[in-house]
Structure of UvrABC system protein C:
Amino acid sequence: MNEKIQSVLNSLPHKPGIYLMKDAEGTIIYVGKAISLYNRVRSYFLESTDHSPKNRSMVSKIDDIEFLVVQNEVEALVLESNYIKQYRPKYNVLLRDDKSYPYIKVALTEDFPRVYRVRSFHHDGNRYFGPYTNSGAVDATLDLLNKLFAFRTCRYDGSAWAPPAKGEPPAGWKQKLLTRPCTQYYIHRCTAPCVAYTTREEYNAIIKQVILFLEGKHDEVLKDLQAKMDKAAEELNFEEAARLRDRIQAVERVLEKQRIINTDAQDDQDVIALASGDDETCALVFFFRAGKLVGREYFILQGTRDSSPGEVMGSFMQQFYQSSPHVPSEVIVEVEPDDRQVVQNWLREKRKGVATGGSSAVTIITPKRGDKVQLVNMVKNNAKEVLDQQRIKWLTDSQKTQFALEEIQKAINLETSPRRIECYDISNTQGTNSVGAMVVFESGRPKKEEYRRFKIKQVEGPNDYASHQEVLRRRFRKAVANASSIPSSPMDDISSPIGETVDEIIQDSGNGALQHDWAMPDLVIIDGGRGQLNAALQVMRELNLDIPVIGVAKEEGSHTKLNTAEEIYTPDAPEPIILPRNSQGLYLLQRIRDEAHRFGLSYHQKLRSNRTFKSVLDEIPGIGPKRKQALLKHFGSVRAISAASLEDLTALDGMTRDAAEKVKEYIGRLE
């Protein structure tokens, strides 16, 4: 700890506020809030504190600390959110691309208000709905609204189309209309206030229906339309009545597509759940209005790998509701956010500042049982699906993947962009059931038909270096056999292709050989650090292969997944390369490495399961296939068999007491 930091720690007040952690370059790397700045900031530097890996990494980079004192915790939360949004510190949980979320604006301050898309909201007397994560969905919503409610989409100044809604017209005011309506009027998408075909009051009634619809108050919209249709029919205005009837039917068709959730709540509710990946989390929000699901939005948070669920939830709620124009009376969350009471008080202040037409109370609920738990589970399952879809979508975006490949090329100094990338990973449990995995990506996309799994045959115990070398020799030996004096061997055989279903388990039985027409990779990635890379390079030199090889490991060592960045090891650079956290190249490298890990781990788990369920029972004298099947079907696991009594085992069909005794004796020796 340097003298600068020590002097700051000595001057910290016992007051609420925020603190800014800075590195040696003066960059803000973390922003936090505290009830007591003295206690919170000093806790980072106490040796007895059990810090997370992220905090340990952060503390090692702190060169200076600044703090700002505020009046209370809510002010601290607001100030913290503003600083995070402005500076996007490395060690804070951040919404990805949070500045680009669109809103739907109902411009109430305009004469004959328009409804259109904007990129930010302000407390300016207009109504805003959002934020939305998909601009295309916003445009589709606006198009639907314009079909249901005939509001204008032009940009004309409508102040001269009708007298002011309140008070007398200003001196010299004169009504000025257009000569004729546009096409929108003739296709029933505008009521043409520009030529006085509708009054200000009639047009404002349409805008009121738009707002009610966006608020989810569909029953009120239908009730209003029904009343107007009945009135038009009574006045024998059958053409208008028919048009209103068609609009009612269109609204009803839209509502039929929405799922109705039976809950006791009649107030607004937001339900939030999380699904986490390697270093990102999908936060999904379902919006319920009077028990009806009216919409959902997802948001991707970065830098969440070693953050607790409570920290992630709290960070998301701060960033989401800071930019949300609406706060519901009840927020149902999967996990309780850190500083729950502070967040709840802040939401109450925000709700109080918006015209809600009701109470300003806000309650954050973490349900443990009942219907609300089912709601949370539904949202969580959807969040997992969204996270998977976003990964697939990213990989299929050719522009992003090409940019990512070019970033990788530049970072590791390749002559050309790597078209074919192969990644290798080793999985084992304390050296047992060791397996290797090879995944192939071409043009940034997985080529699953060329994935391979390897049983490690020559290495005993937990030796990643030797295991990587065995896998690489078996992968490349036959590919260079014709061009060298290296003889092929039965040990070179690897598992056969697995096809499109990557979870199908094909054991490495030596039946399939490496295809000779496989392309050689432009880049080989080894899951590991400097040691694994050097082991791989030794094999490449042995086989006279000139293929670029890099190692990808978690920052500060590959032994833990709880770090905040990746280190890229290259043969020539003495220090690892660390790409920016928002780098597309880093994102692709992580996806490839995670796919290799997942692919190998599933095979390892299958082998371990087979060893537990098959090897143990297969080696017991007198236990044949039928008895083994009966035991597994009834007890489910070797542990359950071990816990069963002799009487329980003997009672199974086909089992004798002698066979039961042998089972107990053999399993007992293993334990």
User: Anything to note?
Assistant: The chain is about 40% helix and 15% strand. Residues 16 and 628 are 65 Å apart (CA to CA). Residues 584-618 form the longest helix (35 residues). The longest strand covers residues 292-302.
